[in-house]
Amino acid sequence: MSEINIESLTFEQAMKELETIVTSLESGDVALEDALKQFQEGMALSKHCQDTLNHAERTLTKMIAPDGSVQEFDVTE
C-alpha cells in the first residue's frame, strides 16, 4: 500500500484498503513492525476518507438553500 498515493484514491478504494488493513490487524497474525506500518497506513486512509466525506457535506450544504429547497450549484466553486 505504501507505493500508492492515498490522495489519488477514491473514497471507495480507500475504504476497501482500510477494510483490508483492519482485517489483517484483527487476525493477530501480523508482526509488530508490520502492524505498526499497517496502523499508520490505516490512519492516513481514515483521514482521507473523513476529508472526502467532509468535502461532500460542504458541497451538499451549498446545494441546499436556507429554506430547505434545492438550489443550483456551480461545480467550479
Automatic annotation (TrEMBL):
GO biological process terms held by the UniProt record: DNA catabolic process
Signal peptide: none
GO molecular function: exodeoxyribonuclease VII activity
Name recorded for this polypeptide: Exodeoxyribonuclease 7 small subunit
Enzyme Commission identifier(s): 3.1.11.6
Function: Bidirectionally degrades single-stranded DNA into large acid-insoluble oligonucleotides, which are then degraded further into small acid-soluble oligonucleotides.
Main location class: cytoplasm
Keywords annotated in UniProt: Cytoplasm, Exonuclease, Hydrolase, Nuclease
InterPro entries to which the protein is assigned, alphabetical: Exonuc_VII_S, Exonuc_VII_ssu_sf
UniProt similarity note: Belongs to the XseB family.
Gene: xseB
Catalytic activity line of the entry: Exonucleolytic cleavage in either 5'- to 3'- or 3'- to 5'-direction to yield nucleoside 5'-phosphates
Species in which this protein is naturally found: Candidatus Jeotgalibaca merdavium
Subcellular location: Cytoplasm
Spans traversing the lipid bilayer: none
Gene Ontology cellular component list: cytosol; exodeoxyribonuclease VII complex
Subunit note: Heterooligomer composed of large and small subunits.
Pfam family, one: Exonuc_VII_S
